[in-house]
Amino acid sequence: MEVTIRIKRQNPEMPGKEKPYWQEFVLKDVEPTDRLLEMLHRIKWEQDGTLTLRRSCAHGVCGSDAMRINGVNHLACKVLMKDLGPKVTVEPILGLPVIKDLVVDMEPFFAHYRSIMPFFVNDTPLPEDGRERRQSQADREVFDDTTKCILCACCTTSCPSFWANGKYVGPAAIVQAHRFIFDTRDQAWEDRINILAEPNGVWRCRTVYNCTPACPREIQVTRAIGEVKLAIRRRKREGIVNTKDVVIAAPGG
Hints:
Blueprint: E1 3-9, E2 21-27, H1 36-47, E3 66-69, E4 72-75, E5 87-91, E6 98-100, E7 103-104, H2 107-115, H3 137-143, H4 160-164, H5 170-181, H6 189-196, H7 211-214, H8 221-238
């Protein structure tokens, strides 16, 4: 294959390149099973060493190389060239400040992540045997899907509500909150619900459904957001004291 890759570039620190511009690169001898990340490496190593991108494991686990590919958020290390065709457009994910080329400032994203208390809270003594706090398989299945998040920001930066208002916590933060809210061993679910009930919390979601197809881990993001909304509504309407009472079926159940 011969492939033309059109990359949206920007260098805010270099005079004349502060504004975004497009640059095309032609690559020959591209195999259909090559991944886009490999092609970006070829461009950087063979044609233009100034091209800047972020990547780490290159195996779809770290989430570092999230970018907008042919208008859709993906991880560059997971996308095969045969699925992209001979002409490919690549640009940074939307809604976050561009540092250079395909690298964006992730700090606003991680600030939202930290705001929902993404850590286990349980101050009760450990069981007498000194081992872990056990949980049934059924209880685990309720939030198992949202444990898969790798914080790549694909879902959040595909969300029009986040583009319009960067103060919105975004789908990824809600997914992370869901993981703890519905964990029967955690004791801070109400604190997280209070955070997400704020104006820039879960109610900013307009159910556009961009987030679920953007997720490289195939998390049912929209479902998770809906379950958090339900927990907030039922707490207010019925005074529930345990989120286990809100969702009783695992995804697909």
